[in-house]
Amino acid sequence: MSTLRVDESAHSGWVPLVVIDEFVGAGRYRLLARIGAGGMGVVWQAWDELLQRRVAIKCARVNDPRSMGRLKEEAAIAARFDSPHVVRVHDLVVEGDTWWLVMEYVDSHSLGQLIARSEQRPTPAQVASVGWQIAEALRVVHAHRVVHGDVTPENILVTADGTGKLVDFGISRALGADGTRTRDGSVWGKPRYLAPEVARGRGAGRASDVFSLGASLYAALEGHTPYGDSDDPHVLLRRARSGNVDRPTASGEPARLIAELLHTRPGHRPEPAEVSRRLRALSSPDRAVVPWTLPGRGVEEPIGSEAATRCGPAFAFPAEFEAARASAATRPDRRPTTTGTGTPTRVADTAPDTASDSRPPRRLVLPRPDLRRPGRLWPIGVAATIVATAGIMAWSPVLDGRTAPTAADSRAILVGDERTADPCALLEPASLARFGKSTLDATLGGFRRCDLLVHDTEGRRTADAELSFTEGGQELGPQSRARRIGDITVIEGTPVGKECPRILRLPDGYVVKVTLKNLGADPIDVCAMADAVTDHAIDVLSRGRIPRRSSPARDASLIRLDACSLLDASALARVPAIDAQHPNPGFGDWKCRWHSTVDKAAIIVRFYQREPLPPDIGAPRQSAGRQAFLTPSELDHDECTIRVVHRTYPNGPAHPIVELVLIEVWAAQSQDRLCAIADELGTAVAAKLPHP
């Protein structure tokens, strides 16, 4: 007879678990209790009838091919590893339309659960102990050319004896694969622990796993992530994208090493082997793991809706079960003998076995509910196992949660991967048809910009609608007016001279800026034109994510480079007190700014494209074999700029287009000295550019 049972035997003193008399894998694995659920599927504690041991089984969501595919990939990846610090995969079972991943059962808590204990924060020695073990796990994983991609406290398990294990390879991918990004530019992960380069849409790599480990250990030491304690995922993602990372306030060597793991530039983070060695030396004098006092487990709250998490059997628990559970929880010997209605029970004759892997659980037998009755799945009790399936979802930005993204969430995710979002997709020549013939042009500025040019009957440009992506912080002055259209805030600026600005604040924290410029001598209604362009952009945004660029960029294009990678600490040291450790990257990594720690000095590197430079734009010179132009500012004697030509490429029947790197130097020095520094920086940048 199929039954519901109460598991008392896993640990004495716990609230009993609900266990379910269901078998999978041709009767080999008996499901005992549902112990975790999320957008990826459900995790069960089970009993292996053949080998007589507890196992954990994750199953993909029913009728979800993507979930099944990810589970199959997770099994293939995780089965490669043989490490005491990686949860082992035992089997992959396909039964009907359900896939089951059978894994090592770990009697543990997640590091996330331990961090959440307000009464007792982990000690530095405990953090170092867990840290070196997970770093060792990453060393093994990376040696197999795999990126975990989701190193978080929820995916780090800690046992009572201090053993740490890495779990959940559901979004792991081979090195070099673009698996952390989806086709529409979204990325998988949790924003609290994402490396800045991943938050900006770049593929995850070894260094991003190291950053996420550092963020997890930071949270263990400080009680919150290095991006602060905000619960707003958009705030967290904006901080991640900008590289705004808090340094540990704790003192000591563990905190100093964690700060190295959290470096905003991937190339400056230590390798997992070095992290493991240094943290292991700090964990305890004899380098043994440091024990933890694990808290007791209470009753788990209901997890989501059955529709969102169903995988395997689902039940509506009868009222008599609650009475039996309450009786079991209050009896001194923890061994219930009757149900609340007097139904006889079957209790094992042996005493409770505290070695949870040695025997299947003793049980209280109850009639199985009628599965034809509608009911909510209410998991009762909780066990320490690999339960880290919740809180992962596609984002741009990521939205933390315990279920998959809803349609409303997807509508709020508009930009996605900054490098592939197409600004020209928000412009339409027909929107300005009543003002003249219009054409799109994506070559008049940075890669985040597109222009809609209006021509008169003689082909002369009369107006330019410039649209660009940026992040928050854009303002239009006190006379501006704001209105709300769905999730988008429209800010209407007043005309200034021959220009009229509009700003669209998107729900994912980005900004679309529209500026309509009158290029001719005759007056035109620039604000009416700005409104026409804005209305079309809103119409596109209301449909969902911004379309991607239609064709990939050439390998030689600057669009593929990271501006922050072109100047190292030795080059930046030419301007005193410049903070080389905390660059401020711009949209798409196509701009980077370094600030001084003592004054207003700054160095800025940015990419842009345009028509060929006029000869009078600056003093010509050669920078590492490339054409360059040095231009001292006529308005500000504290500034000098150098433009380095990267490549020239054809633009159809029109004139060719030039890609350039612009380097600006700001400092309270003589302009001659500033221009000398700019010239040296131009040479340093040119030397790092790829062959055009």
TrEMBL record:
GO molecular function, one term: protein serine/threonine kinase activity
EC numbers: 2.7.11.1
Top-level lineage group: Bacteria
Keywords: ATP-binding, Kinase, Nucleotide-binding, Serine/threonine-protein kinase, Transferase
Chain ranges of the Protein kinase domain: 29-282
Residue ranges of the region described as Disordered: 325-368
Positions with a binding annotation for ATP: 58
EC class: transferase
InterPro entries to which the protein is assigned, alphabetical: Kinase-like_dom_sf, Prot_kinase_dom, Protein_kinase_ATP_BS, Tyr_kinase_AS
Pfam families registered for this protein in UniProt: Pkinase
CDD domains in the cross-refs: STKc_PknB_like
PROSITE patterns: PROTEIN_KINASE_ATP, PROTEIN_KINASE_DOM, PROTEIN_KINASE_TYR
Compositional bias of kind Low complexity: 337-350
Protein name in UniProt: non-specific serine/threonine protein kinase
The species this protein was found in: Embleya hyalina
